[in-house]
Amino acid sequence: MEASSSEVADLSYGASGLGHRFWTLIAATFLAFVCIGTVLPGMALHVRHDLGGTDQTVGFVIGTFSVVALASRFISGPLADRKGRKLAFLGGLISCAAAGLAYLLPIGLAGAYLGRGLQGFGEACLYTGAAAWAVETAGIHRSGRALGFVSTGIWGGISTGPLLGQLLGSFNHAAMMQVVTAIIAFALLSRIKEHYEPHPDAGRMQWLPKSLIGPGLTVGFVNVHYPVVAGFLILHLAQHGGSGPMAYSAYAGMVLVARFFLGGLPDRVPPIYTFYTGLSFMALGAAMLAFTTGPVMSIVAAAVLGFGFSFPWASVASVVLKRAQSHERGSTVGVLSAFYDLFVGTSSFAAGTMANRYGYSSAFLMALGGVFVAAAIGWRVFRKQDGMAD
After folding, report:
1. CA atoms within 13 A on the CB side of 19
2. Alpha-helical segments (H) within the chain
3. Distance between CA atoms of 277 and 262, rounded to whole angstroms?
4. Is 365 found in the same domain as 237?
5. ∠ CA 230-97-56 to the nearest 5 degrees?
6. Choosing a second label site near 188 at 20 to 30 A (CA), which of 163, 194, 275, 389?
7. End-to-end Cα distance, the chain
8. How many angstroms separate the CA atoms of 93 and 184, rounded?
C-alpha cells in the first residue's frame, strides 16, 4: 500500500505524534498568549490618563493591533513556509517582547501605537507558526486534534493574561511581565527541534489563492458572532437578570473544555458532520440569547453557543490543510486567519450599529445570520473535498 502525499509530508517534517515535543509547543503557545493579554486590562486607562489621550485615541490605539495583525497574516504565512515554523514563532515572541519594551519608553502615545503594532505583527507570526508546526508535529491525520489543543492554549493564555495583568496592579508592571513571559516562552521553544526542509521549488507566492476564498469566507461568517458576544453579551443580559458575567464564563469555559476533549472529532468522523453539528448548536445558542428572558436560560444559551463554536474552525482547517502541500500550510493558516480578523473587525462595527439602532437582540440575530451564511458557503467547501476523495 503506497503512502499518501500527506503521510510522506509528515515524514519529511518529522511528525512525532502527541509527545513531549508537541506538548512543549502547546505550553509555549499558552505562554505566548498570556504575554499578549497581560496589558489588556490597563491599556485604556493608560492611554486615557497616563498618556493624555482621548476616548477616540483609545479606540485607535487598540485598533492598531487588529489592522497590523490582519496585514501581517500575509507575511507570517510565507515566512513560516520559506524559513520554517519555528523561526516564525520565535520571531513573533521577539516582536511581543519588543512591544512590552515599547510601552515602557518615555515617548508618549507613540510608544502605545508602536507597542500595539509590534503585538499585532507578533500575534500573526505566533499563530501561524504554532498552528502549522503543531499539525505537522502531531501528524496531518491528527490535524483536528492538534488545532483543538492549539486553540485551547490560545484561549487559556488570553484568559490568564488579563487576570495576571490585573493582579500586577499597574500598566508598567504588566508591560514588564509581557517581556518576561515572552522570554520564558522563547527559552522553552528554543529547546524544540524542528525538522524543517525548505521546498526545492516554492513557486510564486500567491497572496490570496482562489481555493481559499470559500473556506476563508466560511471561517469569517462563523466568527461574526464573536464580537457580539465579547461586546454586547453582558450589556444585553443586564436587561434580563444580570447574568452576563456568568454567561460569558460559561461560553468561554465551554469553548476551552470542548476543544480540549473533543477537538479530535474531525479526525475520526467526516469533518462535514462536526462542522454542521457545531453550526446547529451555534444557531440554537444565538437564537436563545436573542430572545432570552431569564438568567438560567441565558447561561445555558451561552454554553450551547460556546460548545457549537468549538467545532467549525477545526473542521474547515483540517480539510484545507490536508488538501494543501506541506510547503503551503503556513500560508494557508495565515490566509484563513486573515479572514477571521477581517470579519471580526467588520462585524464589530456592524454589531455596534445594530445594537444602537435596534437593540441588543438585533446584534445576536445578526450573529445568527452569520451562522446561516457560513452553513451555505461551507457546503460547497466540503462538497469540493468530497469530490476530490478517492
Report:
1. 10
2. 5-12, 20-37, 40-45, 55-83, 85-104, 109-138, 143-168, 171-190, 213-222, 225-237, 244-262, 265-268, 271-290, 295-309, 312-323, 329-358, 360-388
3. 13
4. yes
5. 45
6. 163
7. 14
8. 10
All cell numbers assigned to 54: 482621548
Measured between alpha carbons, how far is 179 from 198 in angstroms, rounded to an integer? 31
Q: Give the length of the chain.
A: 390
Residue 214 sits in the same domain as residue 184: no
CB-CB neighbours of 358 under 10 Å: 12
In this prediction, residue 327 carries a pLDDT of 83
- Closest to 287 (Cα-Cα) out of 302, 272, 269: 302
- In this predicted model, what pLDDT tens digit does every residue of 313-351 receive, in sequence order? 999 999 999 888 888 899 999 999 999 999 988 888 898
pTM beyond cutoff 0.90: no
Q: Is the dihedral of CA 18, 24, 25, 28 positive or negative?
A: positive
Relative orientation angle of helices 20-37 and 171-190, to the nearest 10 degrees: 160
User: Can you tell me the distance from the alpha carbon of 62 to that of 284, in angstroms, rounded to the nearest whole number?
Assistant: 32
Burial class (CB in 10 A: 0-12, 13-18, 19+), 26: buried
Residue 291 grid cell? 430572545
Domains held by the chain: number? 2
Compute φ and ψ for 381, nearest 5 degrees. Answer: -65, -45
Distance (Å, whole) CA 150 – CA 136: 12
Other C-beta atoms closer than 10 Å to the C-beta of 77 total 29
The DSSP letter of residue 3 is P
CB 39 within 8 A of CB 172: no
CA 340 to chain centroid, in Å, comes to 8
Q: Is residue 198 one of the residues assigned to a domain? A: no
Give the type of residue at 335: V
Domain that holds residue 123: 5-190
Q: What is the CATH number of the domain that holds 338?
A: 1.20.1250.20
pLDDT tier at 304 (50, 70, 90 boundaries)?
Answer: very high
Single-letter amino acid, residue 114: L
How many Å apart are CA 173 and CA 180, to the nearest integer?
Answer: 10
